[in-house]
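## retry 2 of 3
previous attempt timed out at serialization; input unchanged, resubmitting
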Amino acid sequence: MNNKRAKPTMEEAKYVMSASTRIAWDDEDVPCPRCGKVLTHIELGNSGQFVCSDENCIIVGYRGL
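## retry succeeded, writing output
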C-alpha cells in the first residue's frame, strides 16, 4: 500500500464515516468523495481504515476503544 496518500479534508472524512456502516457491514459500493472510485474497508484489530481503490487517493482511519 502506498504511504503517500493524501489526507482527507474534514468534509471528506465526515462523508466516509457517515457511510461506514454501508461500506463495512452491508457490503455496499460507496464512491470515494474525491475521485468516485469504490471505497473499501480494512479491519486492523479494533481499528480500521477506509481506503479508496485508487492507490494515490485518500485513506480514512479510525480507532476503537
